[in-house]
Structure prediction request, 456 residues.
Amino acid sequence: MHNPHPGLPELDYVKPASLEEASRFLVEHAGEARPFLGGTDCIVRIRDGAWTAKYMVDVKGLEGMKDLSFDPQKGLTIGAAVPMNKVAADPAVQQHYPGLVEACHWVASYQLRSRATIVGNICNASPAGDTIGASILYGGVLRVFGPQGFREVPLDGFFKGPGKTTLQPGDIAASISFPLSHPQHACRYLKLGRNKLGDLAIVGVTVMAVPARTPSGYHFGIVLASVAPVPLRAAAAEAILESKEIDEAVIAEAAQAAMDGCKPINDTRGGAAYRKQMVRNLTRNGLMDVWTKVRK
Amino acid sequence: MSYHRITLKVNGSLEVVDISGNMTLLQMLREKLALTGTKNGCASGECGACTVLMNGDAVNSCMVLAAECDGAEIITVEGLAKNGEMDVVQKTLVDLGAVQCGFCTPGVLISARALLNRNPHPTEFEIRDALSGNLCRCTGYNRIVEAVKVAAEIEGQEGA
Prediction:
């Protein structure tokens, strides 16, 4: 049993004045410096010894990091240091990206969400990250500042394993942008934890339906959390929904395909067999929800 | 290790504090400013005993580096009472017997204050949701929730 202790190991707090300075520092101290946003993951992991860091590089104050902007033509941009509570309380996000609001709401507690950020959740690349599924399905693209300047990094292919992404030392994710959502879309995040609020996901399922030219008239997206080393796109399930007219039987078939397509592990939160069945059930429930909603 | 001199406002008074890079806001409040009302429970953002207001938002002070607080405004449980008069959430928790061992109470009070500041008329679900990050092993929560409900009613009447 881990013995909670308030003390962090010795480390330096560094607050660079610009992205260039921050990136240079992270390159020069690769392996011993970490960019840090809300700190809700890294403070715990550094204290527990799971991560080592000689330097915590506070990038929250850098240009654009705290900005949240919505443009009815271009879509939404969320600075890397914008806390989840601010995202979830924003009227434009509530109207155009309700799935993102719902996902934020399922993260830990209010206090945690005063500090936790969506970009941090993505960059920590936990397979259980609650806001990752919605970020993928809304087409999120990270804007990353690195030694060569800014570049855009789509989330497709970004995750390489638990805690592993394509980011390199010196890279700082500065913001995430989402294209304008379809006004008739529906998105749900269904999460199973050991209690109703606050726990990490045993299984999390994000589903989305967007009007499209398919036999059913809709395009469906499904992302599964906590059932693979990375957030998992349920591709086989999506393919079934893409090719058929939708009814309860087809939704059940897709949910079964989602279950068959994942290989979760046994851990303290849940067993693999249980997780698989919950993937099926939550996927079915989520698809029924969005299917009912988009047809209204 | 880096050392920093930071200036911040704590419960309305300006403080200049020398801290090390690895010190948390919780440690600074308790060990440098002797504000021991804020409790250290789990030190990992789970229990909420260390909740304080940072620039108006409820945060777990165990998860904030003191060095980040340069220029910040912090309110701890010691700062809730005004001119010797308890805050309404303090009064109702006492009056309705929502305190047993008391260890979680400072965090509960701050979370409740933060809730009523942003949402003066919360539903029962909203109260439970807002307090979900404050674990209490004694009361079974019902009296705490009831006390926050009554505090909202009293404040609503006072504001009307």
